[in-house]
Amino acid sequence: MKDLNNKVAVVTGAGSGIGRALALALAERGCRLAVSDVNKEGLAETVKALKGSEVKSYYLDVSDRDAIYAHAEAVNKDFGQVNLVINNAGVALSATVREMTDDDFKWVMDIDFWGVAHGTRAFLPHLIASGDGHVVNISSVFGLIGVPKQSAYNAAKFAVRGFTESLRQEMQLENQPVSVSCVHPGGIRTNIANAARMGKSENADAQRKGFDKLAMTTPEKAAQIIVKGILKDESRILVGPDAWGIEAINRLLGSAYQPLVARFSRKNLYV
């Protein structure tokens, strides 16, 4: 996909953060947009910001499999085709393995993994039919390394990475007209930390302030990097200098990265 002009792009979680920034960046390149979110107010603000572009908004809870499949059919019917799907919607949880509840664990997995998996599978036939398709799944740097108190989030984001990298190879081996990219953002200045669920013993204010200090990249910059990665057909899109650093540490040290993360976590996460 060398040109985004007049392509139909689907963006989930478009009511704020990276999702909204992506919708705006894609509109600038001439995309026709199908944007969705569970937050109706945030979604309406995104649509307002996209004034002048061809856009249609949809209420969508990505934890609902049937809703995702219905959404794929609706978008294809409304626009006549689908070229680009960005499975971006996500949530966060800070809690230890011992402390997190089954409900919280399921909440993260249903949105951060199954929302991506179902979003990919529901739209894949339409992307193939378009003759020029691209799947973009948002993982995280936590899909590259394990971090204390992030076991559920790690599980979802590692799963997204494996699922996406496998799909890319399948599309190539089957000579399908669909490319696939996995995105690994570092700290992005979004509202995900403020909306995160916390374990009972967590100091929520301290955790959120800590995240804010580590957020090195704006959503707008993240969107620019992702769009460039799509146009270059990159299999792995790293977003932010921290993402590049973590990827390098993981590649160079292998599992020996863990003592470094433990040292950092003892100082910054166990507060």
From TrEMBL:
GO cellular component terms attached to this protein's record: membrane
Domain Ketoreductase, first and last residues per copy: 7-191
Sequence intervals crossing the membrane: none
GO molecular function (one): oxidoreductase activity
Keyword Oxidoreductase carried by entry: yes
Record-linked Pfam families: adh_short (PF00106)
Annotated Gene3D superfamilies: NAD(P)-binding Rossmann-like Domain
Keyword list, A-Z: Oxidoreductase
Classification via PANTHER family: DEHYDROGENASE/REDUCTASE SDR FAMILY MEMBER 7B, DEHYDROGENASE_REDUCTASE SDR FAMILY MEMBER 7B
Family membership noted in the UniProt record: Belongs to the short-chain dehydrogenases/reductases (SDR) family.
Protein name (Swiss-Prot/TrEMBL): Oxidoreductase, short chain dehydrogenase/reductase family
